[in-house]
Amino acid sequence: MKNPSTPRTASAPRTTPRWTAASLTAASGAVVLALLGTLTGPPDAFAAEAPVGLGTAGSYSVLGGQTVTNTGPTLLNANLGVSPGTAITGFPPGVTTGAVNAGNAEALQAQADLIIGYNDAAGRAPTASVSGDLVGQTLVSGVYNSTGPLALSGTLTLDAAGDPNAVFIFQVASTLITDTASSVSLIGGAQACNVFWQVGSSATLGTGSSFKGSILALTSIAVTTGTVVEGRALARNGAVTLDTNTFLTANCQPVPTPTETAPVPVPTDTTPVPVPTDTTPVPVPTDTTPVPVPTVPVPTLNPAPAPEVQVPGGNAPQSPGTPTSSGKPGEAGDGTSAGPPAMNRGANIQSAASATPLHSTGRDRNR
């Protein structure tokens, strides 16, 4: 029984979320984008970095802005130039296997191309930040930015991870200084022609060090005694100084990246190949030589002579059937034949003869 004193309260209406087509589309799109971001990573994570374009400056081992000075038997395997300055000293004893361009149009063009390359390297979007001493680090391809000076007191390893086209770009805000006997090591197919050092001030390479890459310095470059450079020393505004150094300069030839291609189907000719038929009738050889038909001689059948019958009484033998002189039927002279056929007459005659008595005379026989 209901308690009349209990007040009735209205229940609050239930609210359920209402999904519209637009909201569902937006939600699904967000999920798809999130999944794509998870699978592919940042947009530039797998983008291959292009080499820095050096133009004609790439054909130089050493290019200075004001002067180039050398001490000792330095060896350059590419061009040597200076612009807008004109002074190049120390060659000889230094030797270059390329051209020497001092303050001419070729050197001016190389400097113009160097400016373009310098700005290209400085303007690349960094993929990682570095600072201080790079010793002991192993870096993969990318653009590394430093907001201050960089140093190298030991070995820096650059790993191309099997890609010979891997590019390494270092953006150095101020100076780059390497210690004595320091080195840059390349592994995984990395090439020195794809390593670029954009230096916002000056660079100094320590005595007896081994350096890889092209230095693009805003001011000056000093390469100290016995240093080997696999690359270039390109200074925009200042001097380049050398001391018994060896430069091995080479331009990269891009190695095509192998792409997986679908096998090309081998075309098959479904048209049946007609079988050649020879419509010329083949003559059937006929032998026109008559075949001799063998003749078998047929023997002539001669009737056997009728046997002579000896008549008793001495009369001449007569052939059976010979008519007698008697005119009676059945006897000689009547012209008829009575009795059995001729073949039985001999027997009848013999029977008659045997019936005649031996003592009968010839007269009786005639009768």
The gyration radius over C-alpha positions equals 69 Å
Low-confidence stretches: 9-13, 21-27, 30-46, 319-344, 355-367
H/E series:
HEEEEEEEHEEEEEEEEEEEEEEEEHH
Mean pLDDT: 77
Task: Report the structural category.
Answer: alpha/beta
Based on CA inertia axes, which overall geometry fits? elongated
Structure annotation, total helices: 4
Total strand count, please? 23
Helical percent range?
10-25%
- Terminal Cα span: 183 Å
Please report which band the strand proportion falls in: under 5%, 5-15%, 15-25%, 25-35%, 35-45% or over 45%: 15-25%
- Largest sheet entry: 12 strands, parallel
Regarding quaternary structure, how should these chains be classified?
A: single chain
Gist of the model:
The protein has helices spanning 21-40, 105-122, 342-355, 362-366; strands at 60-64, 67-71, 75-76, 79-82, 87-89, 95-96, 100-102, 128-129, 132-133, 138-140, 142-146, 150-152, 155-159, 168-172, 176-178, 183-187, 195-199, 203-205, 210-217, 221-223, 228-235, 240-243, 246-247.
In words, what does this structure look like?
- The chain is α/β, with parallel strands linked by helices.
- The chain has a domain at 55-247.
- The chain has four helices and 23 strands.
- The radius of gyration is 69 Å and the shape is elongated.
Features:
367 residues, alpha/beta, 12-stranded parallel sheet, 8-stranded parallel sheet, 4 helices, 16% helix, elongated
Break the fold down into its secondary structure elements and pairings.
Layout: H1 21-40, E1 60-64, E2 67-71, E3 75-76, E4 79-82, E5 87-89, E6 95-96, E7 100-102, H2 105-122, E8 128-129, E9 132-133, E10 138-140, E11 142-146, E12 150-152, E13 155-159, E14 168-172, E15 176-178, E16 183-187, E17 195-199, E18 203-205, E19 210-217, E20 221-223, E21 228-235, E22 240-243, E23 246-247, H3 342-355, H4 362-366
Parallel strand pairs: 1-4, 1-21, 2-5, 2-22, 3-6, 3-23, 4-7, 8-11, 9-12, 10-13, 11-14, 12-15, 13-16, 14-17, 15-18, 17-19, 18-20, 19-21, 20-22, 21-23
